[in-house]
Structures are given as structure tokens and as C-alpha cells.
Amino acid sequence: MPARPDAPRWSARVDPAWSLEAWRAVAREALQRQVAPEQLDWLPGGESSLLDAPSVLHAPLPADAPARVPAVPRDFLELAATCLCHGEPQRLALLYRMLWRITHGQRGLLTNPADPDVLRAMALAQAVRRDSHKMKAFVRFREVPGEEDAFIAWFEPTHHILDRVAPFFARRFTGMRWAILTPARSVHWDGHALAFGPGGTQDQAPRADANEDLWRTYYASIFNPARLNTRMMQLEMPAKYWKHLPEAALLPTLVRDAGDRVQDMHDRAAQAPQRRIPERHIAVRGPATANGDDLDALRTAAAACRRCPLWEPATQTVFGEGPRDARVMLVGEQPGDAEDLSGHPFVGPAGQLLDRVLGELGIDRKALYLTNAVKHFRFERRGKRRIHSKAQVTHINACRPWLLSEIEHVRPAVIVCLGASAASAVFGAGFNLMEHHGRWHTLEDGTRGLATVHPAWVLRQPPGAAREDAYRLLRDDLANLARDGNLLDPAP
Ligand code: URA
């Protein structure tokens, strides 16, 4: 029922205007006072003006006012929380109109997607989700000069999404100190808690750091000219975000040269021998970075990797660890639950089994460089549990530049692959683990390689004889390392 023309007007201030709690508190008061949507001027922010209608908090409480406002569907609150982050001033009124309708006989309002209010709210929410996604993908932290492990990023979101997205960065970069500056608001993470503050300016954030070159080299090495689709690229990476991205400076040249590079790929493909798995000589091709020798910079760049979708549900990138001059590199499949949470490879049950085998063989784990073919945990949720899910070829391929860069930096004499995924990442797809395990192979650059079963596979065998056999197989294969005494000596 529309309000009478002579019904009094009220104002409703929401501060901050993107906060569901703030909006909800005022909306509840207005509902309880039975103030119709047409009687309310919704105003964002805390500053009132003399021209404002009196606050709705001063509206009289009708004698028949219910003690409590009716509960509203959870879906509506979720939609409202997202919509409120939009910059559109009318969203506050739109949501109250919807709330009014839901509590006045149209409880199923959201199930009518043709309703103009529902349509509008959905469109606003969609724009906020898209902006949040872009922020997750395009924030680039730069090291603060003179401070260890402190990073600042400058970002210009379209909507009020900083509060919504900041917890994602806190989960992702738990171990770093960082701040994100935006024009309207900033957030700071000290390793324990998020603190929000006023907005900043771009010149308060470092402009470039040592990782910039790395990012560019990395991007150039993963750029595939044959898959260039400039329309999709601009849709996915709109030009307004380019200024945040060190790699964006490369785009015009990469795009311009794409045609020539594709031709070149065709020519080379025509000449290349078509063997799928070379018997002994296996190619290690193009690392993610050709210059720079800093593994830490590579680790920092990998922390922001978005080359495949695994980064999103995972807690963090689990990069390799160990001496940078290690003579032996162990490559696993992917981090598990414990690794994902701690950020370190091989610390969960499979890592403990590996430690036991290494201990029995007298191999010091600290002398090895441990890494994985895929650097994010792939899992399925079952209730509260996260169940390991095998990495696919696309994930291994997407992650390969990181592995190749680690190999390039560490230059181990020997690479040991644990399990079929690691073996296919290093030796190529189609490597038959059960046929070739425990035997030395030579990679194209002279590095020796050995593949064996994964410790997690050993753990998956039924207890008893089967598991003991599997354990022995792993131990006997790894004994090849112990046999070659020189390998475990410090690098010459
Ligand atoms: N399994 C792996 O392959 N890697 C780890 O880091 C842990 C378990």
C-alpha cells in the first residue's frame, strides 16, 4: 500500500554505506516504525545536513508495532550484503523496498527473477562480484624498500569492495606484512589482524620493485601467442587494471608479434620429431624466468600465481624449500591439506613417511630441495574435510614454468620424481612409472632423473603385506641416491 501524500518524510543514514550491519540496523528501526519505502530518504555516510528530513530513529513507534521485526530469508541478506558494496546511491532504497515487500506479503520475492527490483539487485550484486574477482586477480604487491617482508599494493576498485575482499588476501598472504591502498580506504595486515584506515594515493605505494622484471619475464614466457584472443583478453583484463600490472607494459609488443610467433611455432612443429616420450633424453624447456638468480623473488611471484583456478580455493602457494645449491631435488605431486595450511612442502602424513624412509637410508632431508609439480592444493570439500583430488594435466602444465624456474635456479645434479604426476611434469606425459621407476634417466641438459612411487600411494595401500611391499619399493628406489655418495655431499 503506497504511503499517503501527506505522510511525513524521514531520513535513514547508513555509515559506512557498504556495511550490511549498518544498513540492517536502520532498516529494522524503519520497519518497526512502519515507515513505508516512499517516506524514506536513504543517505550514505555519516555527515548529516540541515536539509535532511528528520532521522527515522525519531519516527514515532506505532502502538501496534511488533516487538520484533520478522526474520527475512538468508538469501536476501546475502544479496543485500553484496549489493551494498556497489557504488550506486539508489541501492539503499532499493533494498529497503525489497525488504518491505518481503515482510508485507511477498516472502518469495527473490524467486521471481522477472521482478524489476530483483533484476536490478542481481545486476548490482553481479557487478560487485566481478569487481571483487578482478581485485583478487590484479592486486600486485610491491616490496617496501628498506623493510623486510613488507609489501604495499595500490588498487582502484570500482565499488566499495575492500572490506569484502581483504580477508581473502589475509588468508592468501598470512605470513607477510602487507597493505592495500585504494583511493577511498586502506587495509593493513600485520600477520594477525586486518586494520582498516583512510584512503591513500598511488605515490604512497612503491612504484616498482625487484620482482617487476621477474613478473615480466615470467609473463612473457607463459604468454601463448597461439591462444591470443584480444577481445577475451580485454574482457578478462580490462585496460583500467593494466596500470597495476608490471606485465601489462609487455602486452602491446606481445600482441603485435603474436602472428609471427605463431608462424614460427608452425614452422618448428613441422620440423620437430613427433616422438612422445624420448627413451633417455628428455627435454627440459624454457624456465619461467631466464634472468635473476633470486629464488625468493620467484617464490614471491609464485605467491600471486593465477595461472590455473587452483589458487582460489587454496590457502596459499606452497613453493619449494631447501638449500639453493642442493644437489638433489625431490618433486612431489601437489601440497596436501597440512602443506596448504602451513605453506611448507611435505609436512603432512606423506612427508612424515618420506622422512622415515630418508632416515632409514641415512639421507639428510635438510640437504634436499623439496618441491611439487603443482603448487596449490587441489581438493574437494566433504563436510568440514578437504579431500585431496588428483592434479590434472592442465594444472601440471600451468604450473610447469615455476618448476622449470626452480630447476634453473637450483641446478640440481639429480631430480627425483615422487609419483606419476611429478614424473609426467619432468619426463613428459606418458611416462610409465611402474615400468621405469627406480632407473636413472638423463634429461636433455644432463641432469639425471629418477622416478619412484609417491609416499601417499604407499599410505593408501591396505595395511599389512601390501603396504610393506610398497614401502620397500619406495625405499629401494631412493636407495639409489644413498648409493651415489657424492650426491649428498655439499655442492662442489
Ligand atoms: N604430497 C606431495 O606430493 N607433496 C607435498 O608437499 C605433500 C604431499
In short:
This protein has 492 residues and is of the alpha/beta class.
* Count of DSSP strands: 15
Mean pLDDT: 83
Sheet with most strands = 6 strands, mixed
What is the global morphology? elongated
Give me the side-by-side strand order of the main sheet: 8-14-15-13-9-10
As residue ranges, the low-confidence spans are 268-293
Strand content: 5-15%
Distance from N terminus to C terminus (CA atoms, Å) equals 87 Å
**CATH fold node name of the largest domain:** Uracil-DNA Glycosylase, subunit E
Kindly report the name of the CATH homologous superfamily of the largest domain: Uracil-DNA glycosylase-like domain
Helix content: 25-40%
User: Helix tally?
Assistant: 16
Radius of gyration: 29 Å
List the ions, cofactors and other small molecules found in this model. Answer: uracil
Class derived from helix and strand content = alpha/beta
CATH class of the largest domain: Alpha Beta
Number of domains: 4
By CATH, the architecture of the largest domain is named 3-Layer(aba) Sandwich
Structure in words:
The chain is of the alpha/beta class and 492 residues long. It folds into four domains: 10-131, no CATH class; 139-204, no CATH class; 212-256, no CATH class; 295-488, Uracil-DNA glycosylase-like domain (Uracil-DNA Glycosylase, subunit E, 3-Layer(aba) Sandwich), CATH 3.40.470. Helix content is 39%, strand content 13%. The chain contains 16 helices and 15 strands. It has a six-stranded mixed β-sheet, sandwiched between helices. A five-stranded mixed β-sheet has the order 3-4-5-6-7, with helices on one face. The protein has a two-stranded parallel ribbon with strand order 1-2. Strand 11 (379-382) and strand 12 form a beta hairpin. Helix 3 crosses helix 4 (116-138), helix 11 crosses helix 16 and helix 12 packs across helix 13 (420-427). The longest helix is centred in the first third of the chain and has 23 residues, at 116-138. Residues 268-293 have low confidence and may be disordered. The site of uracil has 13 residues, from helix 11.
